[in-house]
Amino acid sequence: MALSTREAYGEALRKLGAKYDFWVMDADLSKATKTDLFADAYPERFINMGIAEGNLMSTAAGLASCGQTVFASTFAIFATGRAFEQVRNSIAYTNLNVKVAATHGGVLIGPDGGSHQAIEDISNMRTLPNMTVVVPCDAASTYEAVEQAINLVGPVYLRFGRFPGDDVYKTGSCPFEIGKGNVLIDGNDVTLIAIGDMVPESIKAASILKQNGIDAAVIDMHTVKPIDAPLIIEYAAKTGAVVTAEDHNIIGGLGSAVAEVLAENCTARLGRIGVQDLFGRSGSKEELKKYYKLTAEDIAEKAMALVEYKRTRR
After folding, report:
1. Which of 28, 134, 139, 176 has the greatest count of CB atoms below 10 A from its CB?
2. CA torsion angle for 262, 267, 271, 274 (degrees, to 10)?
C-alpha cells in the first residue's frame, strides 16, 4: 500500500539522518507528523518543544543561526498560522537554514474539520521573501524533496498530506528538482498543472479527457515557489488552455501563482480547481473531495469547458 506523504516524510528523515547532520524539532505531534521515526533513531538530535509553536520556530532559528540545519515540524495550520510571525521574522527575514515541514495540509485531511484544515498555508508561505515552497505528491517525490531541502541553503516550506494516495513515481527514479516542474503526460489540447494529492487526480482526469477526444498534458508543479515559469509559458503557448488543481484555496496558492505567470507572459485561458474560498469541514477524504469538487471528474469538466471555449473562438 502506498505511503502518505507525511509517512514518507518520517521515513525520509530516518534514512537521511545517517547521511546528513541535521536536527528535527516538533510541537508535541511527532506521532502524527511521523518525526517520531527520527526521534527513535537519533534522540540526541531531536527536540520536542511541546504545544508551543512560536517557541518551536524561534528555537529552530536559534539552532540554525549556530550553523545547524533544522526541520521544524507540526500541522500546517499551526506552522503557518499560529507561528507565522516567528517564521517571518526569525526564519525568512534572517534567511536561516530552517525547513518548516508541515503535515495535514488542505481539506483532504478528513474529519479534523475547518479549524485544522489549512487552506491558506501555501499563500502565507509563498509571500515571504527567501522562502521556497514545495508540495510533493507521493512517497518517492517526498524523499527527494526532503533530501534536496537539506542541501538547499535557506528556509523551505514543505507541505505534506495525511492519507495515502496513488504513487506517481517509482522509488529511486523520481526526476525531482526544486524549481522545475515535471511533465508526466504530454498533450496538445489543454494543460493540467497540479500539486500534492491533486496530481494523481489530474492523471485520472487526463484519461477521462482522452476518452472524450481531448489530448491533455499533466504537469506536477511540486515547487510552487520559485515556480517553473518557462515550463508554464511553454505549455500555455502549446495548448492555449490551463487548469490548475490544488487542495488549497484558489486564492493565493498554485492557481494564483500560475495566473501571475500567464498574465505577465502570454495569453491562455485559465481554470482553477481548488477550495473556492471556503473553510473546511469534517468528513472522509472521499466525501470532502466530492464536496469541494476536487475529483478527477471535476478537473476533466473544467478542462473540457476551456477546450470548448477555444474551439468557439477560432
Report:
1. 134
2. 0
H or E element that contains 248: strand 241-249
Which among 108, 162, 117 is positioned nearest to 284, based on CA atoms? 108
H helices of 52-188, in order, are: 53-65, 76-77, 84-86, 121-126, 139-151
Of 67, 129, 130, 131, the closest CA to residue 102 belongs to 131
- List alpha helices for the chain, DSSP H: 5-16, 30-33, 36-41, 53-65, 76-77, 84-86, 121-126, 139-151, 198-211, 229-239, 254-265, 285-291, 296-313
- Domain holding 140, by residue range, is 5-159
Mean pLDDT (the chain) is 96
Please tell me which residue in 7, 11, 44, 53 is annotated as part of the active site: 53
Q: How far is CA 59 from the centre of its chain?
A: 25
pLDDT tens digits along 154-209: 999 999 999 998 999 988 778 999 999 999 999 999 999 999 999 999 999 999 99
The three three-digit cell numbers of residue 3, written as one number: 505511503
300: alpha, beta or left, given left = phi > 0 and alpha = psi -120 to 50?
alpha
Q: Inform me whether the pLDDT recorded for 1 exceeds 80.
A: no
Separation between Cα atoms, residue 14 and residue 133, nearest integer Å:
22
Instruction: Give the three-state DSSP class for 26.
Output: strand
Query: Is residue 151 located within the same domain as residue 204?
Result: no
Q: 241-283: per-residue pLDDT in tens?
A: 999 999 999 999 999 999 999 999 988 999 999 999 999 999 9
At residue 64, does pLDDT exceed 90? yes
Q: Is there a catalytic annotation at residue 53? A: yes
Q: How far is CA 136 from CA 8, 69, 165, in A?
A: 10, 20, 12
- In the sheet with 182-185, reading across from the earlier edge strand, the strands are 182-185, 216-220, 190-194, 241-249, 269-275
Q: What is the CATH number of the domain that holds 186?
A: 3.40.50.920
Q: Which set of grid coordinates corresponds to residue 13? A: 528523515
User: Residue 120 and residue 258: Cα distance in Å, rounded?
Assistant: 16
